[in-house]
Amino acid sequence: MTTSKKISILLVEDHVIVRQGLHALLSTDEHFSMVGEACNGREAVEMAEALQPDVILMDIAMPVMNGLEATRQILAANPAAKVIILSAHSDDEYVERMTTAGVVGFLEKQSSAELLAKGIREVAKGKTFYSPAIAKRRRDRANQPRDRDGLLKANGNRLTSRESEVLQLVAEGSPNKQIADALGISVKTVEKHRQHLMDKLNIHDTAGLTRYAISAGVIESNVRLTIG
Q1: pLDDT for 78 beyond 90
Q2: What is the pLDDT of residues 62-72, one digit of tens each?
Q3: What is the DSSP string of the chain?
Q4: CA separation (Å) from 4 to 32, 43, 47, 145?
Q5: pTM
Q6: CA torsion 166→171→173→175, rounded to 10°?
Q7: 72, 41 contact by CB (below 8 A)
Q8: Nearest Cα to 76, choosing from 114, 48, 113, 43?
Q9: Are 128 and 136 contacting, i.e. CB atoms less than 8 angstroms apart?
Q10: What is the pLDDT of residues 119-128, one digit of tens each?
């Protein structure tokens, strides 16, 4: 098999040791070509556009920008992109949000190397692929009423991509100036986004925003330990 026919993979994972392990594991498969590694969602968006990989292997909970928002932005720029989630978080809410956002596969991090490789090959062929446990839960839930929006919602209103980014950075404890620098906007604009978030969510303090971000899967529950 020639290199041009290999499945090109962009790996998105914030934990260095996990990322290195996955890279080493997948590099042993002659069908795969590791074309890039990103350590957060913003890097993933930029690298996905630059590299146009066949498959993007994406974590969910990451700093700067989480996997859900990164997936939305990647697919908005390139609807044909194929994103597989590989995450420690596989609750139905996470799976539903990511599937509605447009991912074509979802695997738990405890999945075997063989299952991961199979998932990548199937997705590269244009199919969907879920780990057996997730696939069974999805079948069981198929006829249950559920919210198909999949976006962060508050009192029936969607959060914009920018509001979602601000929410994550606020929940991670970043001050307004740091958020402004990270997003390339003014402090006054950050303040406006924070106020819009609180109005939409009917939340009146940063601790409340953090709790909401945790419950919505925007950040991990261990990011902030002082919210009460």
Answers
A1: yes
A2: 888 888 889 99
A3: --GGGSEEEEEE-S-HHHHHHHHHHHHTSTTEEEEEEESSHHHHHHHHHHH--SEEEE-SS-SSS-HHHHHHHHHHH-TT--EEEEES---HHHHHHHHHHT-SEEEETTS-HHHHHHHHHHHHTT--EE-HHHHHHHHHHTTS------S-EETTEEPPHHHHHHHHHHHTT--HHHHHHHHT--HHHHHHHHHHHHHHHT--SHHHHHHHHHHTTSS-TTS-S---
A4: 10, 24, 19, 44
A5: 0.66
A6: 30
A7: no
A8: 48
A9: no
A10: 999 999 999 9
What token pair was written down for 137? 């839960």
From CA 16, how far away is CA 204, in angstroms rounded? 36
Q: Which amino acid is at 179?
A: I
Where does 153-215 sit in CATH, by number?
A: 1.10.10.10
Q: Tell me the one-letter amino acid at 183.
A: L
Is residue 151 over pLDDT 50?
A: no
**For the chain, how long is the longest CA-to-CA vector?**
58
Residue percentage of the chain with pLDDT more than 70? 82
The predicted pLDDT at position 96 comes to 79
> For 3-141, CATH number?
3.40.50.2300
Which residue bears the tokens 């350590």?
39
The Cα 37–Cα 57 span in angstroms is 10
The ranges assigned to domains in the chain are 3-141, 153-215
pLDDT tens track for 156-197: 556 777 888 888 888 888 889 988 888 888 999 988 888 888
